Amino acid sequence: MSKVEEFLTKEEEQAVVEAICVAEKETSGEIRVHIEKTTSKDPYDRALEVFHELNMHETHLKNAVLIYLAIADKKFVICGDQGIHDLVDATFWDSTKEAMATQFQIGNFKQGLIDGILKAGHQLSIHFPWEENDTNELSNEISKG
To answer: Does 75 score more than 90 pLDDT?
Structure first.
């Protein structure tokens, strides 16, 4: 098994996917998690690349959020599409990252991801509340590279 497959157990992965489902029940926004072993690029640049590879830039309201992790590098990035980025200030992204880092530092990766997902979902629900005709535009599954 590679480090990516060992990073979260199947049960932990399912808990993260469930957190995405819970968060997205309150918003038209979309949240994805992508995990890979390492990157030779700047983590933010790689996150943006993954954002496009996952077609996250194609959501109708430009309200997708990606949580990207390069686990061997011990780096992670949270990035949002223009629709959400224009509506929240930098302190939101920083405070979300800090909440996740607190859990990551003690080895609680599942809870760190869940905390970040729920915090992002809350902000998305304020600016992009769920409406009856909303559809799930992106997979909720964790992608791996």
So the answer is: yes
